[in-house]
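Re-run with default settings, no changes from the original entry. Doing this only to confirm the output is reproducible before filing.
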Amino acid sequence: MGKGRLEAFTDGVFAIIITIMVLELKVPEGSDLSALASSIPVLLAYVLSFVNVGIFWVNHHHMLHATDRVDGKVLWANLFLLFWLSLVPFVIRWMDEAGLTALPTAAYGAVLEMAGISYTVLQWTIVACNGRSSRLAAALGNDLKGKASLVAYAAAVPLAFVNPWIAVALYVAIALLWLVPDRRIESRLKD
């Protein structure tokens, strides 16, 4: 089947996730800089989460441009990814209310880890549907950046119990790694 409905549905879910995140932001309770300063942690968590959701959207967008068709397995794999990404607003809210403590910080990493795993599963199912000689299969190669991200998320989760700031530093590092869209797919689309 064609991929148009999958793209439209996915774009809508990404938009809803970002909308929920911004609606969860609380307005400072005062009108001075100290009131604004108390909102800085949740604003930074929002920025990091917005960037992470954006990274998944950009790479999903590129991946679907290299995809000719989808099947039922791809639809379910896509829903698996969207499920994990839909939990991002929940874990941000938990981090906001609990502060930068171990369990919410670890949960944030676990959600991102599962989103990364589900993205990988989605890639595999699209390749299976489109064939090993498809543009996406050729573009993916060994996916070193994807594998490194999964390892870093897996390390960040237990490290959150040692020091939540270590986990946050890893989450930021992974986001910085992915700020540049996946050029492997773009270069294949130009060929």
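Residues 4-190 form one domain. The radius of gyration is 18 Å.
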